[in-house]
Every structure is written in C-alpha cells, then in structure tokens.
Amino acid sequence: MAKNYDLVLLGGGTGGYVAAIRASQLGLKTAIVERDALGGTCLHKGCIPTKALLRSAEVYATMKKSEVFGVEVPDAVLHFAKVQERKQDIVNKLHHGVLQLMKKGKINVYKGYGRMLGPSIFSPLSGSISVDYGDGRENDILTSKNVILATGSRPRSLKGLVIDGEKVMTSDEALKMTEVPGSLIIVGGGVIGAEWASMMADFGAEVTIIEYLDRLVPTEDRAISQAMTRNFKKRGIQVYTKAKVLPETLKKEDGVSVDAEINGKPKTFTAEKMLVSVGRQPNTEDIGLENTSIEMEKGQIKTNGFGQTAESHIYAIGDIVPGLQLAHVAARQGIIAVDHLAGQNVEPLDETLVPRCIYTAPEAASIGLTEEEAKKDHELKIGRVPFGAIGKALVYGDSEGFAKIIADKSSDDLLGVHIYGPHATDLISEVSLARLLDATPWEVAETIHPHPTLSEIIGEAALAVDGRAIHI
Questions:
Q1: Whole-number mean pLDDT of the chain?
Q2: What pLDDT digit, counting tens, does each position of 57-105 carry?
Q3: Radius of gyration over every alpha carbon of the chain, rounded to an integer in angstroms
Q4: Are the C-beta atoms of 401 and 382 separated by less than 8 Å?
Q5: Any idea what the CATH number is for the domain that residue 32 is in?
Q6: Among residues of the chain, what percentage have pLDDT more than 70?
Q7: Residue 302 phi/psi, 5° resolution?
Q8: How far apart are CA 350 and CA 157, in angstroms?
Q9: 350 φ, ψ to 5°?
Q10: Whether 253 and 289 share a structural domain
C-alpha cells in the first residue's frame, strides 16, 4: 500500500527525530521509519545511558573521598543493579518524551526496516521507502517529495577481535553489564574509550587503555591529551600509547588476554573483560543505496553543505556522512536539511562552530582549532589559566585542569578554546556563542563573569591572551 508524504526520514535517532519535528513546524506532512526505538544510539546506547552511569560513578568517587569536605561516609557501598536501574529510568523517561513529541507534531512513525526503491509505479523518482515489518505483514510503500537518510552508526571492531558480548564487548554490550568487572582492558583511547576508562576506574575496576596512536583523545588539543593522561595515571589507570593490538593473540580463558606490540616488542595484557572502542562505522548497508545515484566516499555518503546527495531530493545527515560524529551535529544537520528542502534561508554547517565534549572526570570540552592546527596558518597569541586560580573550583573541590584560548595575533580572531576541568562541558557554551558572534578575546574578557563561579576561568583566560590576567 502506498502512502504519500512531503518528507520521509529513514532513521529516528537524534538527527532523524529532530529533523522530523522541524519539518512538522514548517507544515510538512512527515513520517519516520525506524526499526528500533526512537532516539537511536544517543538515547539508548550512547550519550544518555553512558552519562547516567558516569554521574553515578562520580557520586561514588565523591563519597569515597568525602572526608575532604569534612563529611565522613564510612563504607560507601556501590549497588550496581540500582545504578543500572536509574540509567534505564532516565532513558525510558526521555524515550516517552520523544514519543509525545511525535504525537504533538502529528508525525507518523513506522516501526520497521526501511529500504529505498528505484523509480517504480509508485514514483518516477528513486527514494520511495519500502517498510518491512518482519512479521509477515505486507510492506508499506512510502512515497515522498523528499527523503532524509539518518541511519546512524554502530561500534566498529578490529579484525580478529570477535565481539562475544561477554568477555569481549563494544560499548553496546558494556552498557548491559550487571556488575563492575574487577579489571578491564580498553582497546582504543579516543573519546568513548576515555569516558569508559574514567567511569570504570571510579567504580573500582582496574583499567588499562591500549591506544594505537601517540596520545589519548588524539583529535583534541595536545594539552588536553597530556593533562588527561596525567590524571588517568594518578588514578591508577594504565595508559599505553603507540601500542598495536595483535588480535591473533586473543585468548578467553579465565578472563581475556591479548598481546600488543609496543616499541617493537610484544607485551601481554590480561583482564576480566575487554572493551573494544576503536570508532564507529556508518549504517549504510541494505538501505537501498544501489537503487539510487547517491555517491559514496570511504563508506560514507557524499553530500553538499546542506546535506543534499547526488539525488537532489535525497538528503543524508549524521554519522553516515563525513564529519564530526556527534548527536548535536546530527540534530543541526537535520534542521539545515529540512530548512533547505523547504526553501528557507539557511547556511551550511560550520564545523569550527561545533563544541566537542568529553565526559571524563574531570571533563574536557573544546571548540575551533587546536594549537597545532591553528599555527599552520596563523601567528598565535595564547591565554592559559589553571582552575587552581579560580575560587569556585577550590570550593567545589576540583581544581585540576585549565582553560586555554587561542587567538590570531594580528586580527584578534578567536580561533579555538580548550577546557579541561570541572563542568568543562557546560562552560564551553559561552565560548560557543562567542565563536558564533565572532567575538574577540577582548570582548569575552569584557563580559562580566559573576564571582565566585567556575565561569570566571573563561574571562581570566581571555584576559591572559593579552597578558592581562588578574589572578595568575
């Protein structure tokens, strides 16, 4: 049976459902096809559940050192089943909220597997969506003036490291653990690996990170990588960089063991469990791309700045297109795509305006260029202030870290900001706005920051760019 829409979205993750809401606001008859639960990876297997676990880990770690605050909590006990229950309650509440938003926007949701068709009796254009319900029911055919592909991604593994979900896991399986392992090997020291390392260490596990490149979170400013490495080692997390895992050595007897080549020599690592965190791969298989003229590049869909593919009525957003794989990027790409197909005045996404967040303890957040990137085309002036100079950080009990602002020496353009410390992921929003408004460090410094607050570090770092910092 064919049903007609102005817009059909294949995938109901953050990018998909946000785009659907925007389309509804513009009066477009809209449908989403999603095989799993609305909200996608971010809500069910990524952002939200991991941050719920990280919060519990933070509270537990704080309880264990509460005497620093003059409060003794003897024998703090971790009930991991309750931690998991709290996590799931949060996910369920947010999922219910998304469902309500679909009803509010009168957006039709088809729970099934969607595939694009080529030109057919249903439409002279490719991109009609066949919805397979997998239960013997006849497929529905959804025809539409426009299609947005938002099928997301899944965890990647290394060839030979077979994921069994018990001893060798990705983040998907790790979220379902019923107890904290005594020890954990994490293969990969990127953002996801770093967050899991911080979390599991706070829960009491012995953690070892094996990273192929020369530093943790290698996409971030080197200063953040160095500070995070020092913090991890101080907390007992073993960090090995320039280490190549040898999958053929994997053994799963009495836990798990694997060899890694470090400086040309093999070293054996053993633990109770292993988490493989080596990035994510786009879900572009079996969605009907072969029935279209859509072009691919390194497994991802090629688009222009508005998300348009080689078929101008078909757009693609999120993890299936090149660029930053972040939920808020997918959401903004979805809004841009909808506004563009609806004829609204819209600008392409500028990735230098996208804040990046890492929810370790302490947190890290950044926007714009790293120092290494910026120095290629600019003469720099840099302001850096430690959290130890900020009164509220001392009051808060977490004064580790810094804020670093990078600017062009001649034009005073704000090129990049990097924060490592308490509530860094909240503090980055101020400089995100500053970047959008093309503010200079002087203008950020002239902004009055209330005292005592953690946000004072932004004003101090902006002053430090020109050698005017007050408290260092």
A1: 97
A2: 999 999 999 999 999 998 899 999 999 999 999 999 999 999 999 999 9
A3: 24
A4: no
A5: 3.50.50.60
A6: 100
A7: -80, 135
A8: 30
A9: -105, 110
A10: no
Contacts of 284 (CB under 8 A, 6+ apart): 151, 296, 299, 300, 301, 320
The Cα 214–Cα 221 span in angstroms is 13
Answer with the one of 255, 278, 301 that is the final residue of a domain.
278
Q: What is the pLDDT of residue 243?
A: 97
Just list the catalytic residues.
451
The pairing of beta strand 30-34 with beta strand 2-10: parallel
Using CA atoms, how far apart are residues 246 and 242, in angstroms rounded to an integer? 13
Residue 1 — pLDDT band, cuts 50, 70, 90? low
Asked whether residue 470 is assigned to any structural domain, the reply reads no
pLDDT digits (tens, 9 = 90+) for 94-120: 999 999 999 999 999 999 999 999 998
Say if residue 9 is in the same domain as residue 138.
yes
Global pTM reads 0.96
299 burial type by CB count under 10 A (0-12 exposed, 13-18 middle, 19+ buried): exposed
Report if residue 356 sits inside a domain: no
Show the tokens assigned to 339: 């506004």
Cα separation, 409 vs 372, whole angstroms: 15
